[in-house]
Amino acid sequence: MAPPTIQKFESEEQVAVALAIYILHLSAKFIAANGSFSVVLSGGTLIDTLRKLTEPPYVNSIEWSKWLIFFLDERVVPLDHPDSNYKLAYDGFLSKVPIPKSNIYPIKEKLSPEEAAAEYEQRLKHLVANNTLKTSPTTGFAKFDLMLVGMGPEGHVASLFCWHFQRFEKKKWVTYITDSPKPPPNRITFTFPLINSASEIAMVVTGEDAADAVKVALGKHANDYYPLPVQKVSPEGSLTWFLDKEATSEL
Ligand SMILES: O=C1O[C@H](COP(=O)(O)O)[C@@H](O)[C@H](O)[C@H]1O
User: Fold this and answer.
1) What domains appear along the chain, each with residue ranges and CATH number?
2) How many Å lie between the centroid of ligand 1 and the Cα of residue 73?
3) Whose CA is nearest to atom 5 of ligand 1?
4) I want to staple 117 with a disulfide (CB 3.0 to 4.6 A). Which of 58, 62, 188, 225 is the partner?
5) Quick one: which atom of ligand 1 is closest to the CA of 74?
6) What range(s) does the Glucosamine/galactosamine-6-phosphate isomerase domain occupy (predicted)?
7) Is the pLDDT of residue 231 over 90?
8) How far is the CA of 174 from the centre of ligand 1 (A)?
9) Which atom of ligand 1 is nearest to the CA of 180?
10) Complex ipTM tops 0.95
11) 76 — phi, psi (to 5°)?
12) pLDDT of 155-202, one tens digit each?
């Protein structure tokens, strides 16, 4: 993997603008090359940082009908539940842009966490088989064009937490957790082999709460003995960090 690109900005507002420009360029590039743009969304603060995409000039410069939307992790709750990442993404982003509903891939409701993870993995494999999604020739996992990844204050990404075994999964594409240390406890999540097969990953980290984990991940004394989940983000494509001043205050 090439070394990550680290972009630091004075404010979260500047991160939001830079992120919109970055996504706009990638959207045009992947649609020109493949006719579609597969995007994986995290939940959390990331969704608000995408707000510029829903405003002019960005909103009018994107071929939204070619976007395919997936979820990096999801809470196993109904899709209209306040804890749902789909609901967060729908209310804050997806309802404001003209992506066809059939191009959005939420989890199936009314399944157990184990069943929901297996069903989502099967759906991804089906989309690879019918050439809707690409495959990484190196790993054999699906190769998404862009993953937009947030980070929790203790360094978790997706629903892969520091002291939980899911972070070591090697074979499954999607796994589940029933004792998430951050509520709600039942979730499904992409695994690291799937995450790291992506073409482009944007790590979008803002706010003072993230400063300690950013220091561990990017500071001079990065902890490689038992790395934080965020340190395992290492795509075969490119990794770009988008950071505001508060998130870098400990560097
Ligand atoms: O629980 C989750 O947390 C992470 C980080 O959220 P943030 O609010 O600290 O940005 C998020 O990326 C993930 O999708 C979500 O399920």
Assistant:
1) 5-244 (3.40.50.1360)
2) 9
3) 152
4) 188
5) 16
6) 11-241
7) yes
8) 17
9) 1
10) yes
11) -85, 80
12) 999 999 999 999 999 999 999 999 999 999 999 999 999 999 999 999
